[in-house]
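Format notes (please read before filing issues)

Several people have asked whether sequences and structure tokens are stored in separate files. They are not. Every record keeps both together, in the order shown below: the sequence lines, then the token lines. Line labels are part of the format and must not be stripped during preprocessing.
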Amino acid sequence: MDCPPPGARALPHGPATWEAGGRAIDAFCTTVLRAGFAATLFVTPEAADAHAPLLEEYAGSGVDVGLLLQPPTLRGAGYKRYLGAYPGELQQQVVQDAVRRFEDALERRPLSVRSAMFSASDETFPQLATARFRQSSISSPGRRTPKYQAVWAGAAADTHFASATDRLQAGALPLVEVPATTDATQCRGGLSPDLAVENGTLDRWHAPLIASQLERHEREQIAFRTLCFVTTSRFPYQDRSSRPRYTLESLLSYLVGIDERYDVVPSTLAEAYAHFRSAT
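Then the structure lines:
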């Protein structure tokens, strides 16, 4: 779950208020954990500060609390564009600033990271590795949205070590990249279908996409197979009558069901890193 500040200062839009965002985070994590699954939160420094007690509580319960890099929302910094729009030195400055603010809020260093709107350039992964991040979820294979510097046509679809020179390919950096799960063979309006919880219904959207990716894993004999779901704290997961909440619960039940055929291992991004390093 991406957790940006309230309002529409930058994409992805945040919740209406800090209170609404906190309630959405709380409901999302509670629902996922009670079902026996794992949650990863990507929070901006402002969100880390606003929700510090809640985040500390969930971090103690095994939730992975990582950093959301959303430069336009770094208060007082003056950044207008998304991460991938900046040259390497400025990306390093953005990352260092965001990490420092995150540490000030939560008194620990983040090891997981996502760039808002999946914005990145070929210089992004080496900057993140230099900043000592261990795992990231920045790529959205098939996506083509140049205005956000998020061009992922031809990107590696499965978990891999990031490259120091090519954001689209596997490499040898000590940074494990877990792409958002997409169907990169399709693209409409610059976006490939992905496992965003709020997109469509389980039967018409998520289940067919999951099935096609599991079939691809088998067909291509992928050694390390992941399904990476995404959402944001903008959606009212605290409202049991809302479609996102209903879809989330349906997805969790569906994943329990496919455990009869597949060995489903619930993992935070940090746990995916540990599993991948062990497997490789």
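For reference, the curators noted about this record: The beta strands are 2-3, 40-43, 64-69, 112-115, 135-136, 144-145, 150-151, 160-161, 176-177. The helical segments are 18-34, 45-50, 52-59, 88-106, 124-130, 202-220, 243-258, 269-279.
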